[in-house]
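look at this:
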Amino acid sequence: MVVQDNVDARDAGVGVLLEPFLHQVGGHLSVMKYDEHTVCKPLISREQRFYESLPLAMKRFTPQYKGTITVHLQKDSRGQVSLVASPLKEDRRLLKVPAESAAVAIWQTLQQTSGSSGGACPLAERQRAHLAHSLQESAAKVLLRSEFHLSAPVSSLLEDANGNQVERRSFNPWGLHCHQAHLSRLCSEYPENQLHQFLLLENVVSQYRHPCILDLKMGTRQHGDDASEEKKARHVRKCAQSTSACLGVRICGMQVYQTDKKHFLCKDKYYGRKLSVEGFRQTLYQFLHDGTRLRTELLEPILHQLRALLSVIKSQSSYRFYSSSLLIIYDGQDLQERTPDGLRAQEAPKTAQDSSARGLAKVDIRMIDFAHTTYKGSWNEHTTYDGPDPGYIFGLENLIGILQDIQEGQ
């Protein structure tokens, strides 16, 4: 992460209060919400250079790059810590965030959590029930009800009282887990007034009412060329013990909206690492199932976009997308559900790029996370490769094959 000089004191309190991004399903770096259509994440120089030199053919499969912003830690009179971004040049007015902002409220609760004593008790089952409340009420407002107080680290939200991973949530807890870890690191390693650089990227799920997201770690190799021997060995071991080695793809996170229960079913990267090939197939099937039926109408547009991406990857010589992820996104609102204005979804205006007169379901395929991507001509590279990325292609071909099997009912 790039760190700049100290912030000018006169700028304190001016800027955009960053909110936790509640649809982060994988990764370890905290992704935050800048506005409805923009997210941000800690800047890594290699990833910034990738976005700035992105081949035209790949742009439809990556989030739009919107530049960088400066971020600093800010404490209020109660000692609660927030991350505040300097607004973009075209938005230099003072920006106020409503006191009842859902994500900001969660963020403030996390500050109280991270500062609590290490002997905190686990969440009671009665308190956990609040997290599965209807999506008609924001997750944060449920968390912050007067009778609900977080008294344990966010990581405990991922487990029930018996230590088993809880699947059903009204929001995905993984992003909050990442936020807490990131905030703790910033507070311990940097002074309050230190400046940090963040990347601004398109919020690729902003158009979805109930975004169902599958985060897939692609390729047979995950370590970058600059990895230490210890890190290289660790990543090689993870690949060998997961579907990365035999399929070239493994699940790093998932949320799928269950229409019968009105909540998300969530899985994290630890679940994905344990899957066999058959378990991977079953989880893909589960990702396409809304709790009532298999969303078979999703398969054609997903396969169409994956094949298009495969063609693009095959045409990119020297690129190696080590440790990058692929997102598959669709709307959990079934085509037969009625929209708030009373229209059936297929009668409403279609905004997704792959919707058509045939009424194809809204789906999206996006590559993300390029901190370890290398290619010929990138700055300060000691290793260059010829031809397209074989590990990524292997993973895409296997993914396409499994989805075809599901489509054919095998």
